[in-house]
Amino acid sequence: MASPAAAADPAVSVCFVVEIDDFDLGAFNSCEGLGCEVVLEQREEGGNNGYVWQLPSRIKFSNIKLTRPITKDTEKVTRWIASMVAGVTRKTGHISAMTVDGTVVARWSLMDVVPVRWQGPSLSVDTPKVATETLEIAHHGFLAAD
């Protein structure tokens, strides 16, 4: 039975389920770079020596890196990337943070998603460790909650 502290914090153990339009890419155990930054332009005003104006100009969205051990879902990622051979089409993406029992803790919807990089496992008999894959995606921002 879970302790009361664990029940009060459902985000103790999460996985990240990723969907890109028609492609359900499965669950990842690591999600990095989910964020944005407001770019500021600095303007100096003549005669005003007290401060420099900091004017917001645009929002930059960082690339998102998703990592997991390789599974059958790895084929879904390579199928999605292979579908782009004829031309890159930007898609809508969803990342859902879920607890072990399937409860969605948070969900982010992303517009204009494209794959930037996929890194498969490094396989070597000299270094036995879990084979992992990393998918990096770029996007043009967040969509309002659906």
Automatic annotation (TrEMBL):
GO terms for molecular function: structural molecule activity. It holds the Pfam family Phage_T4_gp19. This is Phage tail protein. The lineage of its organism: Bacteria, Bacillati, Actinomycetota, Actinomycetes, Kitasatosporales.
